[in-house]
Every structure is written in C-alpha cells, then in structure tokens.
Amino acid sequence: MEMDTDSQRTVRYVLGIDGGGTKTACVILDHRKNVIGQGRAASSNRNSVGDEVARAHVTRAIHDALAAANLQTSDIQAMCAGMAGVDRPLERSIIHGWFTELFPGIPVLIHNDALIALASGTGGELYGVVVISGTGMIVYGIDANGQTRRAGGWGPLFNDKGSSYAIGSAALAAIAQAVDGMGPTTTLEGALLDYLDLNMPQALISWAYSDLSWAHIAELGPLVVECAQQGDGVALAIIEEAAVDLAAAVEHVVRNLNLLNEPISIVLSGGNLLPGFFSGLVSQHLHSLIPKAQLVRPNITPAIGAALLALNHLQKGQPDEPVAY
Asked: What is the CATH code for 3-122+300-324?
C-alpha cells in the first residue's frame, strides 16, 4: 500500500462510471491514473429502462471492472458516477443508495453525465462548458464559483435539437413529405431503404414503430450526414439546422454564465462531435458565436473523467460525503 505525499492519505484505487442512454462504462484507476480494470453493460438511464434494469446494468459493469482488475469492492476508496436522471434530489437519493450498498463508507460522487464528459476534456477539473451530441444532446456549463447552467437534455419527446434522434426523426419526416408530394425529393429515401433493407417507403412505418427506443431512430443520424456530404439538399438542411441549434444552445449557456469574454474550454463530446462533417459545421458556428473559446476534444473517455473526479476528491482532502451536481 502506497502513500500519496500530496494528500498524506492512502490512495489506492478509484472507480468511475459513465451511465448513458446506450451503454454503461466503468473504469478503475490506480493513484497514478493508470486504467487497471474496465467493465461494460447496456443502458443505465433509469428514465428509459427503469430502475431495476438500470441498477442491474450498472452493477454488472462494476463487477466486470473489479474482476478485470482482480479487486474487491473494499479496495475502492472513492467513486464517481456520471448518470442520466440525477437532476432532482429524489433521483440522486435513489442512485446514491445503489452505490452505498456496494461501497459503504467511501466518498460517492454523483454527477449529471454531462459533467464527467466535461472532466474528460479538462483532466478532471470542473470548469468550462461541454456540449454532447449523440443519441441525445445536452449542453452543461460550470463557472469558477461552481455555478451551473444547462440547455437541452430533456429527451426525444422534448425534441433535443442537435441530437442523432432529432436528425433521424427529421429525416423520416422529410421522406414522408417527399412521398406525399408535399416536400422536395431527397436521396434520403433510397439511402434509408437500402440501409434498412426495405422495399418501399411505407415500410418505414413498421420499422419505426417496431422499436420505440431512442437509439432506434438515432441510428439513422450518420446516414443523414453521409447524404448531406454527397450534396442532398434536404439532408444538408437537416444537418445545418442541427449544427445551428447546438451552437445556439452552447452560446446560451456561456452567456448565462457570463463567460462570453473568457478563454474558456468548450468540450466537444458524443459520437456526432467526433472529427467529421457535422462536427466541422458545429465548430464553425461556435467560433463565430464564442470567438475566445477553445474547442477541446477529449482524449480520454467520460468514465475515466469520472474516475479522475473521484481521485481529485481524495487528493484534495475534501469531505468524505456524498456530492451531487
């Protein structure tokens, strides 16, 4: 067992969890920030899969990571979870209970999953703004005083603009409009039919309603981007609107934190914001709206960002009590 000379306390292992709408990832770090164990499971978004399934998935990811690291729960000295559905006290209390049963007596940090994505771009510090665009979207910012602002993240029924779900849904609507003669023709029709191995546009109805999960519609997002890159005007309009919406949400959060004139980091996270055509459009709009900001793409995963937050909590000698943002 080794001593961390900065904090003058034993620092052995910390655990980080990224509990998202598509997957749950868990990592274990040692005090040198080395990843020594990882685990994965399906979605632990309690709003989409329910408490019982969400808890089962997160527990599986934890146990798989512990097994990979050849550790027991008692070896973990702090943990941090970034989860969807933790923005209200009752929600935080429920999820906190899951973890304190597994890890009694240690610091348990519970954050909105956007904050661990921010930490993945800042090396474990909570300052700046993160914009996430994947199955869903959210923009989350925090200033030097710990004040937070957010935009989006309400879910598909509230039309999270700039998400893959919104892009896929817009593509289906555009195809329906084109087939009915109420909108311009689009190569999206043939592209989606080929991708889904369907023989007529009306077959999209059965496909769409066969699975009401968010990811089902969101999987169409990359195909819409591909059609836009190939010059389809309808697809390009959908993608451009999504990019404008995302950038506007970021500007709103930055402005409300009074950081428009600060050289803040804006962390780009989620599958849609990997380097590529759509991400390039978003970046252009962000540079125009917030010229002093630095756009950052994380080189570590949100789960590692969560683990770094737990490690920083220990090394800074913060109180051993539950923390939630």
From this structure: 3.30.420.40
